[in-house]
Write a structure and sequence with these properties.
The protein is mostly helical. It is built from 12 helices and 3 strands; from the N terminus they run βαβαβαααααααααα. The protein folds into 3 domains: 114 residues, Glutaredoxin; 106 residues, Up-down Bundle (Glutathione S-transferase Yfyf (Class Pi), Chain A, domain 2), CATH 1.20.1050; 34 residues. Helix 1 links the parallel strand 1 and strand 2. This is GST N-terminal domain-containing protein. It comes from Hyaloscypha variabilis (strain UAMH 11265 / GT02V1 / F).
C-alpha cells in the first residue's frame, strides 16, 4: 500500500479540503486504498517557517503539503494534491461531471479565504505583517541557506497575503465567492437535502468538488460570513457537516482556532498526527 505523509493544520481551510477529500475517498475505496500519515504543522508556533520545513517540504511555508517516497518531490498545493489523488483514485470525479468539477475547483482556488475569514483588526497601513517571519529575518545567527529560504517565503507571503485584508481586495473576493456560489447552487441537485446531498446527486456520490467546497463553506459560516452564502448551500453544508466523513476530520470542532480552547488544541495535535 502506498504511504504518504500529509503536513497539515487542523485550522487550515486548505488542509481541511485535502483531509475531507481523503475521507470521502476512504468512503468510496475503503480504508486500505493508501496510507496517510498526518503531521501537524503548528502555525501559531511558526513551525511552517522552520528551516527543515522550508528547505525540505514546502518553500512557500504553507500547508497542506504531501510527501512520499513514491513522489519525485512534495506536492505543495491542495488542488494539486487532490488532482494527483483523483488521477490515482478516480472515484471522486465521475466522467460525466469531470470538466465541470475541475473548472469550479479552479474557480474556488482563485478565491483567497483569508480575505473573508480574518478580522480587519489584523490589518495595518502596510498590510498584514507576518511578525514571526520579520523576526526570523532579523536574526544574524542563521545559515545563508535558511536566510534565502526565509527571503523567498517573505516575497511569497507579500504577494499573496500582505494586502489580503485591504478593502478593495475583500470586496473583490466577496464577489468572486458569490459568483461561484451562484454557479454551484445551479448544479446542486434538487433532491431532498437529508438524502445524500452531494452536489451531483446521491447516485453520483461524493465528488472532489464536494471535497473542497464543504470546508470552504463551513469556514465562512464559522467566520460569521453566512451573509454571502445562498440558503441552499447553507443547508447543504449543514447536512454534510453532520456526517461521519466530516466529523472524523474535525472531531466535531469548529474550523477556526480562535473558537477552540487551548486544551482541546493540544489534544487535537496529538490525535491528528500518526
Ligand atoms: N494555494 C494553496 C494555499 C495554501 C494556504 O494558503 N495555506 C495557508 C493555511 S490555509 C497557510 O499555510 N498559510 C500560512 C502562510 O501563508 O504563511 C493551497 O491551495 O494549498
Amino acid at each position: 500500500m502506498t504511504e504518504y505523509t500529509l503536513y497539515h493544520n487542523p485550522f487550515s481551510v486548505h488542509s481541511l479540503m485535502v483531509r475531507y477529500t481523503i475521507s470521502l475517498l476512504e468512503s468510496v475505496y475503503g480504508h486500505s486504498f493508501a496510507q496517510f500519515n498526518l503531521k501537524v504543522v503548528d502555525q501559531s508556533r511558526n513551525q511552517h517557517l522552520e528551516e527543515c520545513f522550508l528547505l525540505k517540504v514546502n518553500p512557500k511555508g504553507q500547508v497542506p503539503a504531501l510527501t512520499s517516497p513514491s513522489l519525485p518531490e512534495p506536492i505543495t498545493d491542495s488542488l494539486e494534491i487532490t488532482t494527483f489523488l483523483t488521477k490515482k483514485y478516480p472515484g471522486l470525479v465521475p466522467e460525466a461531471h469531470r470538466e465541470c468539477i475541475f473548472a469550479l475547483l479552479t474557480e474556488l482556488h482563485e478565491i483567497q479565504p483569508f480575505s473573508l475569514c480574518v478580522s480587519q483588526t489584523y490589518n495595518t497601513p502596510e498590510g498584514v505583517r507576518n511578525v514571526g517571519l520579520d523576526f526570523l529575518l532579523s536574526r544574524s545567527d542563521i545559515s545563508d541557506e535558511y536566510r534565502r529560504a526565509l527571503q523567498f517565503k517573505s516575497q511569497f507571503y507579500d504577494s499573496v497575503l500582505l494586502h489580503a485584508l485591504d478593502d478593495d481586495k475583500v470586496r473583490q473576493v466577496e464577489l468572486q465567492a458569490k459568483v461561484l456560489f451562484d454557479k454551484v447552487s445551479e448544479i446542486l441537485s434538487d433532491e431532498p437535502v437529508d438524502k445524500d446531498p452531494w452536489l451531483f446527486g446521491s447516485s453520483a456520490g461524493p465528488s472532489a468538488l464536494d471535497g473542497h467546497l464543504l470546508p470552504f463553506i463551513v469556514r465562512l459560516m464559522d467566520a460569521g460570513r453566512s451573509d454571502i452564502i445562498p440558503e441552499k448551500l447553507v443547508a447543504y453544508a449543514t447536512e454534510l457537516s453532520r456526517r461521519e466523513q466530516w466529523q472524523s476530520v474535525t472531531l466535531g470542532l469548529p474550523t477556526m482556532q480562535s473558537f477552540v480552547g487551548k486544551d482541546q488544541i493540544e489534544n487535537l495535535k496529538k490525535v491528528m498526527q500518526n
